[in-house]
Amino acid sequence: PRPPGLMWLQHGGGLRHTCERGDGPARYGWVMHDGENFGVQEIRDGRLLLRTEFVKQPGGDHGGDWSWRVTARMEGKGPAPLLSLFFYVATDGQGELRPVLQNGTRLAAVEGTSEELGNFTLTFLPATGEGEEGPKYASYNFLAAGVPGLHRLTDLVQHSLRDTSLFSPPGRPRRHYLAVSGTGGLPGEPPRGQLLLHQVTLEAPAVLEVVLESGSAAGARRGRLAGQALGAALARHAAAFERRFEDTFGLGARGVTLPQRRFAQAALSELLGGLGFFHGRSLLRSEHHSDPLPGPEAALLTAVPSRSCFPRGFLWDEGFHLLLLGRWAPALARDVLAHWLDLMNADGWIPREQILGEEARARVPPEFVLQHSETANPPTLLLALERLLPDAPLPYLRRLFPRLRAWFSWLNRTQAGPEPLTFRWRGRDTDAERFLNPKTLASGLDDYPRASHPSEQERHLDLRCWMALGARVLAALAERLGEPPEPYSDMALALSDNTLLERHHWAPELGAFADFGNHSTAVALRWHHPAPVPGRAPPAPQLRREVQEAPRPRFVGALGYVSLFPLLLQLLRADSPRLPVLLGAMRSEAQLWTPFGLRSLARDSPWYLQRNTEHDPPYWRGSIWVNMNFLALRALHRYARTAGPHREQAAQLYRELHHNLVTNVFRQHKATGFLWEHYRDSDGVGQGCHPFAGWSALVVLAMAEDY
Hints:
Blueprint: E1 2-10, E2 15-16, E3 27-33, E4 38-45, E5 48-57, E6 65-74, E7 83-90, E8 96-102, E9 106-114, E10 118-124, E11 139-147, H1 153-160, E12 161-167, E13 175-180, E14 183-184, E15 193-202, E16 206-214, H2 227-249, H3 258-273, E17 276-280, E18 283-285, E19 293-294, E20 298-302, E21 313-314, H4 315-328, H5 330-341, E22 353-354, H6 357-361, E23 370-372, H7 381-388, H8 394-414, H9 461-480, H10 488-495, H11 498-505, E24 506-507, E25 512-513, E26 516-519, E27 523-528, E28 542-547, E29 552-555, H12 565-568, H13 579-587, H14 626-639, H15 647-672, E30 678-679, E31 686-687, H16 699-704
Parallel strand pairs: 11-14, 18-23
Antiparallel strand pairs: 1-2, 1-7, 3-4, 4-5, 5-6, 6-16, 7-15, 8-9, 9-10, 10-16, 11-15, 12-13, 17-20, 18-19, 21-22, 24-25, 26-29, 27-28, 30-31
């Protein structure tokens, strides 16, 4: 079953449930979360402040007992609207729920059974006032309904609301409010599971508690975790979280201010609070079949980039997530990594986006649902494994090794370039006339400029560097397991050869590392007006690409994140004559430097801040992205500590970039309450999705200077 969920309604406003982009709550996010047993979340919705807290009490065979506390307060002056809180539990085709009613209208408890939870009882305690106050006047309503799918819960509840109930506090005026009707469903949609919902309508301030007690934990239970006992447990867990956070990251010892430490705790907690367990089938297109096919049943434990925009697993994002998760909870990070590798098919391919089941699919635009079996994604999981490797148990690594070999072999085979030791991302956009520069979604850098005319002659610099990292990590893993490190160590050596790297990717005319391909330097988007058809409405004008110079094989002059990859993944020798050139481009305000972090594309690039189509604004064409800035800090930190002629230049750049990035991400969080997907290079303002506590939470490791 879906564990207890929460919706709320300020009467006169709209029903709130799932995190949606642009949904309106001024701020929301976890301020403390340990990833397992405890969390505190704050939600600001207009004048309403909701604080949700939970504690898990392990025991028995099904995860133990859980207790939740929801505190509602109204800020500011003036009459407060009535508030309804909807607590629900639902099944999706498996499990059974039985309501326990009090006075025929109040859902006092739910008794249930499921494979995952065994027998359990979920108890909804009566509302109380804040602090030590006694019972709080409230009206109660109850809904039992069939559910066509968990993705339809919001619509089902919205459909069942009726303006027929009265809120009648003693000695106070009576008020109408929207309440759920007793039974129902969505017309024309056959039910697949059950919903039981408990509506509590009251005036804030108020406290509500919900307790889930596992049948298999009865012998270990020391009493119900509610009221004062729950308050004491929450205080103990909060103190333990504070101690563990300082022991792990040492920000207090580094002199980081209390507001910045609170911000770092919230950034980590948002990542941990986004961990989810997903189940279902992906929709796949394989080279072996002409029609899309559902993939096998899959289960995935993963963090997500954003609860509002991207509430699902992304392959290259997850490697960055695991850098932070692995520092906080290494065993949990290893579990997540193993889940991802279990998604591999027989060929060694892992779909880059995990859209498992109807609920996940309902949040994805149709054009992105289908996963193509030739499309790769950067193997950032190996970046995380490199950090986890020294302390990971050998039996765990032995189980991983065959899968990692298969994955790396698939990448090496399917993404091979036109010459030995060169590589090419497959799956670039094929309708070249639509795009200023056809996207390369496989690279993770979506609209970053590549060769203007996709071809089999392309050599992609970033993919070559990712393959070098992969070979290095697999060689280290083989040695740890006592296996022959060849051919991985040989491949790592060849791909790290700076002379060969320059032959394939150094562009003398650009003074930078670059992609190579069939490329025109004179392309532009122009409005085209199709010829009118007699008797029909005039056709809409179209923005199409015009090529004003024929393409030819050449290096692609797009200075930006891709150009830095030999530095970012530390392939350049510390004495390389190319290193100061890259450091200079990073520090140049005409190119990549801003007071807020490194921009993704040089300001003097012809693609800088250019739209890719009429409907595609610039994405990786100037904005500041935390994951790439983190890789830059990590590399500069190493070059600053390695003997070589550019050591001091790297150290100075590191200090300035560290200050700029951390200061801006903190400042934007303070102003808005969110981490953001990327940041505007002109003023540092957060852009794109929010909250984005995926790789933007790497700011915590940057603050700790833990690379």
